[in-house]
Structure formats: structure tokens, C-alpha cells
């Protein structure tokens, strides 16, 4: 397997990972604020 191909695959994976983390953190933050509003 070529180094270039490994690099492109890992770049793609990191892009997907960043996207996923962004979605999850946004979802958890909104859920967190809903909880806070319920408490107060």
C-alpha cells in the first residue's frame, strides 16, 4: 500500500471524526442546556 493512499485515508477519517464530534458536542450541549432550563 502506498504512503500517499494511507495519508489520504487517514485524512478522510479525521474529517469524518471531526464532523461526528462536532455533531455530538452540539447535540449534547443543547441537551445540557435543556436540562439546565428544566432545573431552574
State the gist of this model.
This protein is an all-alpha fold.
Description:
The protein is mostly helical. The chain contains one helix and no strands. It is rod-shaped, with a radius of gyration of 17 Å. The N and C termini lie far apart (57 Å).
What order do the helices and strands come in, and which of them pair?
Layout: H1 3-39
Mean pLDDT score, rounded?
A: 86
> For the terminal residues, how far apart are their CA atoms?
57 Å
Q: What is the rounded Rg?
A: 17 Å
Question: Which sequence of SSEs, written as H and E, runs from N to C?
Answer: H
Large-scale geometry: rod-shaped
Largest sheet: none
Low-confidence stretches: none
- How many strands in all? 0
Count of discrete alpha- or pi-helical segments spanning 4 or more residues: 1
**Helix/sheet category:** mainly alpha
Quaternary class: single chain
Share in helix: over 70%
- As a percent range, the share of strand residues is under 5%
Protein name: Transcription termination protein, NusA-like protein
